[in-house]
Amino acid sequence: MGLTWVALAAVLFGVGSVAQAAAVRALDDGSRLPWTSLLRHRWFVAGTLAEGAGALCHVAALQSVSMAVAQCAVSASLAVTALTARAWFGTRLGVRGLVAVGVLSVSLVGLATVSGQSGTATDTVALEIGLAVAAAVIGLVGLGAAIGRRGTVLAVCSGLGFAACSTAVKLVDLSRPLAALTSVPALVAAATGLLGCLWWTLALRHTTVTTTTAVVVVAEVVPPSLLAPLLGDTVSAWFGVVAPAALALAATACVVLARGRRPAPAVVEEAPRVPVAA
Fold first, then answer.
1. How far is it, in rounded angstroms, from Cα 239 to Cα 192?
2. pLDDT more than 70, % of the chain
3. Is 38 left (phi over 0), alpha (psi -120 to 50) or beta?
4. Which letter, b or e, does each residue of 64-100 get, where b requires 16 or more Cβ atoms within 10 Å of its Cβ?
5. pLDDT digits (tens, 9 = 90+) for 241-265
6. Would you list the DSSP string of 73-142?
């Protein structure tokens, strides 16, 4: 059942991200983004609902499979995003882009294959402090990137926010639902999840949806997968060899995709000027 949740999450994440990108592209005039209109746009609402449903599927997967396998839902969503973007926007990646997407997907799936079984994570003060510090850093760096209009940095911050959210969810004790709502991991999960969504939306203004998704995927998948042993998951003896190689391949693929063209700003039609008689 865990793999079923993983597959559902991949589809929902991929389709939802393209729907959100469509809303951003429709409203962004190149100088500012009307947030009030964006939050009410039908495609943004639909995409957000799809992303939310995908997040619930992801949480369900985390209860039965290892962290690395659950994170494959995120990596698989890249292929869904690329296909959906091509059908929706007519976006073509070209040969290099397609190869980069393939290499990225294979490297992240390879990372998951060397993971073992899901274990029970132990919540410690050190982990809680680490997550809180990570949330603060993600917020501050993302704010600086938003001011400087650095799309790739925003995508990295978004991915790290989602990664911290997944890690925090793994630490939430669901056996006591009421106490879990006010626990440090639950609060960190909520904060980093919101930051991830915010930086994701802003990143879509400055890079293509496929490039943004690729960078977010790597930043979201790799850290929790590498931290799997600390979260109670068992790993294969090949983990120490495969993990660095997968990280290097994924980073290279992201560099190739990040060199893609910046999305063209929406064209704003101006009303013709009427000459005024002197």
1. 27
2. 74
3. alpha
4. bbbbbbbbbbbbbbbbbbbebbeebbebebeeebeeb
5. 777 787 778 777 767 766 654 444 4
6. HHHHHHHHHHHHHHHHH----HHHHHHHHHHHHHHHHHHHHTB---------HHHHHHHHHHHHHHHHHH
What pTM did the predictor assign?
0.70
95-121 pLDDT, tens digit per residue, is 877 787 788 778 777 776 676 555 555
Classify burial at 173, counting beta carbons within 10 Å of its beta carbon; exposed 0-12, middle 13-18, buried 19 or more.
middle
Looking at the chain, how many residues does it have?
A: 278
Let me know: does 2 contact 241? Beta carbons within 8 Å: no
Q: Is-contact 225 170, C-beta < 8 A?
A: no
Distance between first and last Cα of the chain: 77
- How does DSSP classify residue 241? H
Tell whether the model's pLDDT for residue 269 goes beyond 80.
no
The closest of 136, 133, 155 to 262, measured between CA atoms, is 155
What radius of gyration, in Å, describes the C-alpha atoms of the chain? 20
Structure tokens of 184? 């440090």
Can you name the residues that pair with 115 across neighbouring β-strands? 235
State CA 233 to chain mean position distance: 22
In eight-state DSSP terms, residue 182 is T
- Which pLDDT value is given to residue 157? 94
What residue type is 274 in one-letter code? Answer: V
Q: What is the pLDDT of residues 4-22, one digit of tens each?
A: 887 888 888 888 888 888 8
Please say whether the beta carbons of 203 and 257 come within 8 A: no
Largest CA distance in the chain: 85
